[in-house]
Amino acid sequence: MRWEKEAETLLKRIPFFVRGRVKKRVEAFVRERGKNVVTKEELLLAKKALREKEAQVEEGFSVEGCFGATGCPNAVTSSLEMLAKIEELLKEAGLTEFLRQKVKGPLKHHHQFRVALSECPNACSQVQIKDVALIGRIKLGLEPEKCVFCGECEKVCEERALVLSESGPVLNEDKCVGCGACIKVCPEGALLELKRGYRVLLGGKLGRHPRLAQEILPLASEEEVLALLKKVVSFYQKHNQQGERLGALFERLGWEKAFEELKK
Ligand code: SF4
Ligand code: SF4
Ligand code: SF4
């Protein structure tokens, strides 16, 4: 494939570490158009077409997890099976087709309905900016009579949610994120897990008007997560205007009212 001088000059403006890849893609584009010379005009056409293609997505939804299920020591939950069920649920709800009709054009990244899950409260997978955020956590219980006052739990709790008093550990539930780190260090079993599940948040997004997802359930089982997700998807499909994100929809209808309806 021959490159005209003007096109070559433009190509040199592209950072060197992606230049080779861009060159190949431009040449493939030009070849597809039955030509064998890259002119400035062809290069600009290729740039526009490749940008548009990159912005497009096949599916109207995405489901992501974190590395927790594959061996992260911080993982509280292990959710590969649940993530597969969530993907199935979104497919069955016909979200891709639904969004295609709503946006009346090719689907782009910012149209996608996004579910993200972190297997512990560290939330590495940026769950708070997704439509549905799931965060693995536990509910902590105390048996202070077993405490030997070693102080290890107080030291390990990054949230300062556990304080050692004269009568044993005292928990501030509002501060506890449910990471379970204190249970691992307690030598006497004075701290225990009462329940394990997911904190569920809804409506996070970036874009022009970014906002973090808001908590709707503090600790839900897998069944409760799936049941809520079904309701959220049908609520989203019922009220959606022009493919707006869930957070924008809550903003328009009122968060409180929307959450009340979803919790029924
Ligand atoms: S969110 Fe937690 S479990 Fe997942 S990768 Fe990060 S630290 Fe590990
Ligand atoms: S579960 Fe985590 S946040 Fe809660 S008290 Fe224990 S160490 Fe602190
Ligand atoms: S780690 Fe266990 S034994 Fe030690 S102070 Fe905390 S609750 Fe008590």
Automatic annotation (TrEMBL):
Residues 138-166, 167-197 form the 4Fe-4S ferredoxin-type domain. InterPro entries: 4Fe4S_Fe-S-bd (IPR017896), 4Fe4S_Fe_S_CS (IPR017900), LI-POR_suB-like_C (IPR013580), NO2/SO3_Rdtase_4Fe4S_dom (IPR006067), NO2/SO3_Rdtase_4Fe4S_prot (IPR045169), NO2/SO3_Rdtase_4Fe4S_sf (IPR045854), P-CP_red_C (IPR042298). Gene3D superfamilies: 3.30.70.20, Proto-chlorophyllide reductase 57 kD subunit B, Sulfite Reductase Hemoprotein, domain 1. It comes from Thermodesulfatator atlanticus. SUPFAM superfamilies: 4Fe-4S ferredoxins, Nitrite and sulphite reductase 4Fe-4S domain-like. The keyword Plastid does not apply. GO terms for biological process: chlorophyll biosynthetic process; photosynthesis. This is 4Fe-4S dicluster domain-containing protein. It comes from the Bacteria. The keyword Iron-sulfur applies. The lineage of its organism: Bacteria, Pseudomonadati, Thermodesulfobacteriota, Thermodesulfobacteria, Thermodesulfobacteriales. Keywords: 4Fe-4S, Iron, Iron-sulfur, Metal-binding. GO terms for molecular function: 4 iron, 4 sulfur cluster binding; heme binding; metal ion binding; oxidoreductase activity. It holds the Pfam family NIR_SIR.
